[in-house]
Design a protein that fits this description.
about 45 residues, mainly alpha, Transposase-Integrase
């Protein structure tokens, strides 16, 4: 979404889909791992 977009016009389902896309996108700063992979690994280490 562009900056300053009012998110109230979108359903929770639509916002969840966008969040999933962002969390599953590899990042150069994470050595091409996804944020989801990093979070899951961190949670696994604390169990």
């Amino acid at each position: 979404f562009p900056k300053k977009t009012c998110l109230a016009q979108y359903t929770q389902h639509e916002l969840d889909l966008v969040a999933a896309q962002l969390n599953n996108r590899p990042r150069k700063t994470l050595k091409f791992k996804t944020p989801k992979e990093i979070i899951e690994r961190g949670v696994a280490l604390t169990d």
